Amino acid sequence: MLLQPSPGSTVDGSDWLVRVRRGTISSIGSFLLALLLGAVVFLALGANPVSSYQAILSGALGGGGSLGETLNIWTPFVLTGLAALIPFRAGLWNAGGDGQLYAGAVGGILIGLTFTTLPGPLLALVIVLGAAAAGSLWALIPAVLKISTGASEIIVTLLLNFTAVLLADYVITGPWAEGFSATTRQIPSSAQVGSWVPGTNVGVGEVTALICALGVFLLIQRTRFGFALKMFGSNRGAAQLAGLSLARTTLAAFGIGGALAGLSGGILIVSIHHALVTGMSNNYGFIGIAATLLAGLNPLWLLPAAFLFSVLTVGSNNLTATVGIDPSAGLIVEAVFVVLLMALGVLRLRLWQGGTQSL
Amino acid sequence: MSGKSHARSLSIVGALAVAAVLAACGGSSTTSGSTNTSIKVSKVAVLFAGVSNNRSFGNSVYDGANAAKQQLSSQGVTVTVVPNLNSPDDYLHQGTSFAKAGYGFELWMFGGAPDQLVAVAKQFPNVTFCELGVMVPPPWPKNVCTLSGEYYDGDFLAGMIGGTISKAHHIATVEGPAFPALTTEAEDFVLGARWVDPHIKVTQLSIPSYVDVAQGQAASNSAIAAGADVLFPAIDQATQGMLLAAQSHPGTYVIPQYYDSHSLAPNVVVTTVLLGIDGMTKSMINLGVKGQISNHDYHFKYAQAGVGKLAPYYNFSSLITPSLQARLSAAEAMLTQGTLTVPFIGTPGQGASYDLSQLPPLPAG
Amino acid sequence: MTTAVLVTILGGGIALMIPVLWAGLGELIEESAGIINVGIEGVMLVGAYVGAQVAQLTSNVVLGLFAGIGIGAACGAILAYLYVYRAVDQLITGLMFTLMALGLTTVLYQKNPAGTALAGFQVWVIPGVSRIPVVGVVFRQTPLAYFAIVAAIAVWYGLRHTWLGLYIRAAGQGAQTTATSGVNVHQVRAVSVIMGCSFIGLGGAALVLTETGGFVADVTNDLGFIALAMVMLAGWNALALIGAAFLFGVSDAMQYAVQNISSLAHVPHDLWLSIPYLATIFVLAITRGRDVPRALGIPFPVSDQRVRIRLGRVTQSIRRRQESGIRAG
């Protein structure tokens, strides 16, 4: 299930090469090292590292709806992770998970506040599908630009993140505003999807994430599109010689990826917030990318990888009440972990230009 | 990473928003002291938006909580202060966290998390939760309360001062994104100035942030360029920008809000409208530790717990002439007696067009 | 009234552009050498935090500025090691560095919040010129503004007309070729990263010491990413960067100043704020990426450099022998 470099592929004669190696032992070692560095930070702030990590665990997995919170954040991590994963497989970068999430949320809330006469469950479905479509469109912008002008999709997706947040801000403070808080009006209560576990918000979102991960796995392993992705990812020149179209693959990769990220925005609206709120995504897209890398670009491994990050993110909310440290400490551990993975060579993303070079 | 400052500031104002609406609706009870000194709750958490030391809303909460802490520490009470909780989710998470950690009373000085308040209260029925300025739909859980205050009376008085001391007969307000409770702060300031000087010129500007100091400064510069020499902010930390702008244009005065800001700019801050947040915080903590909180809204009228009072004038005492002082005292008396009711004006611009004949005649000065 | 509005836009725009210009200059140096540093936002945050703390402790804003430069250089050293010598993927690592810096500064700040607004910098008024109506406000700015313009000119000149600048730009166009010519690409890139991050740290310190009056959590609020975009908008030209940063400053200043211009007052303020991003995307599309340093973002492993340098030396000796052979035979 680990991504293997295709045998016989070399630097010469290929344009781009994406290779991710993952060693389990080194990953665990990096994780422990990251925990150690986190412990140093806790100590420096006057907190007991052991109690701190205990607080994180109990904050994420303990009682009082904590596990529900953890799962609720796991859903966008998985979906934005998938949004980055699909283009990654073809050697393309999608750093716009956040923007596509917000674009999806904007699309979803506009549908939810306009077509209020639709029966509840139908409206919820339309919201979610509309969100996916909006996210897909938002991701197609960089894809089209890349194909037609060669503009770096990394930069464009990154910039569109901020543009999407501004767009969402306009919707929140503009004609659809609720008035008192940083939110729009709520979608009709009949369209608000309830949870399947009482006392939490767990339900549709988590199942959707699971299904999408399985779907992406099958997409990559069993379809021609998935084959095209893998070919472009390992040997772009050969793929084009074989008649695969880079343009079409790019469009499809970003289109599907954007749809998944937009989908997570729609899910946040119908099942959790019931409206578009400021700060709906707290760097979910970037953490999704981190989870994807940790998973070795494998959709099935993405599920536990995203869960690890969920535990760290939600659990650190508990740090204030227990050891008096700001919840952002969890972000430190997550980020250091990925940096260590990169620095120690556990994660190696190689995009280099091969081909003929004059000496 | 963006948008957080919006969330926090909007929530601060949301608090005040609902405060005003509750005031209009009535159905509340005023605070009262009690002579029962037995401590029922020994761990109190005060969760609030903003920071503890920026001379603004959060600073006010912090001071009130600290005052209560010092008062109660001898009786074995722990008061934990948690700043910088600027979004409803923060209150959901931290509220749950602190309840799990054994705290018996939580005071949420926020105003934007009514659903979270009820949700957490239902999960922890043995812990009391109170939030500033929210509306809780009935039925209220037994362990939930809200608090609110009539601060805009102070804004009206400040407007009277502004209208009197302005040599250019031109005042200006700078507001953050509009909400009824925030809007009424500036509108009542304008109304107070017009009560004193019906022909005074009014410039009203708005900026899209409560905390961006640079924007506050630039908007204030704009107002000064238009000819105003008395400025009033309905923004949070961005007021510091207004102070910077006023300082670079000698002869400009500022009357800020929330927290006594005189020391920040002694040459321009004439007085500050205190919203009494510290007083309200301290009162509620005292009630909370004695287990005397019941599930309704605690409404603070003008001058109760310092709500709506004005800070001292410091080096500007000479500006507040005896005639102005007499007028102010008369107005305060009218407020307390009820002969003067400052209207809640939730729509921008209506302070400038409000029919002055609806107000009682201006006292002699 | 219109004059006052213009003055506000112009003056406010310049004030707002200063941190972006400083950080942008740093990023421009790095990217000219082929390193894309998405950690710019993180370095700015760290520079802002340390700058504010030091200024608070010493009651001296100039010391705060220098502290910002220093901590920026320190971050640069760490990033140089990661980007250059470990040849990690620059985008991921930069992104993670930003998240790490955000977490770290927030946690530290919460433990020990800095005080209220600091005294800030005095405005240096240039006599005579500053009296020109409207435009005169350009000459009534804090010294950081003037130094930023001078620095931009210096960077532009340095990249074009000094040896180091030449090496930097060569490394940015192709690491292998440059290494084959005998240049130690790693050293050049490391130097550019450390230098660049010093500028970025300065930008962060400038932000808190002139504009916002103190550090708060996430005080930069994506300003670093805006600087990143401005470098691209300027086509990696330091002089054009002044214009790009100014565009950003003016867009930012427009959103409230337009309330005095009735025809524009209804434009949503988010639109003004999105101008820098949209302009950059537009320019990137129009120029078809022709100005992008060709080696931007591509790691150059240490082993590759060794091979290339050796290859370069071998090729040179072969050529020399060929030439002497031709002469002889």
Structural overview:
The complex is a heterotrimer of chains A (359), B (365) and C (329). By secondary structure, chain A is mostly helical. Chain A has helices spanning 24-44, 49-61, 66-89, 97-114, 120-149, 153-173, 204-222, 224-234, 236-241, 246-273, 284-294, 299-315, 319-323, 329-343. Chain B is α/β, with parallel strands linked by helices and 365 residues long. Chain B is built from eleven helices and ten strands. The model of chain B is unreliable at 1-36 (pLDDT under 50). The longest helix of chain B is centred in the first third of the chain and has 22 residues, at 4-25. Chain B is 40% helix and 14% strand. Chain C is an all-alpha fold and 329 residues long. Chain C has a two-stranded antiparallel sheet. The mean pLDDT of chain C is 85. Chains in contact: A-B, A-C, B-C. At the A-B interface, α6 and α13 of A face α1 and α3 of B.
Indicate the topology.
The complex is a heterotrimer of chains A (359), B (365) and C (329).
Chain A: H1 24-44, H2 49-61, H3 66-89, H4 97-114, H5 120-149, H6 153-173, H7 204-222, H8 224-234, H9 236-241, H10 246-273, H11 284-294, H12 299-315, H13 319-323, H14 329-343
Chain B: H1 4-25, E1 43-48, H2 57-72, E2 78-82, H3 88-100, E3 105-109, H4 114-123, E4 128-132, E5 144-149, H5 152-165, E6 170-175, H6 180-196, E7 201-206, H7 213-225, E8 230-234, H8 239-247, E9 253-254, H9 277-289, E10 297-300, H10 322-337, H11 350-353
Parallel strand pairs in B: 1-2, 1-3, 3-4, 4-5, 5-10, 6-7, 6-8, 8-9
Chain C: H1 2-32, H2 40-58, H3 61-85, H4 90-111, E1 124-125, E2 140-141, H5 143-161, H6 163-173, H7 175-180, H8 185-211, H9 223-233, H10 238-257, H11 269-286, H12 302-328
Antiparallel strand pairs in C: 1-2
Helix pairs in contact in C: 1-5, 1-6, 1-8, 1-9, 1-10, 2-3, 2-4, 2-8, 2-9, 3-8, 5-6, 5-10, 6-8, 9-10, 9-11, 10-11
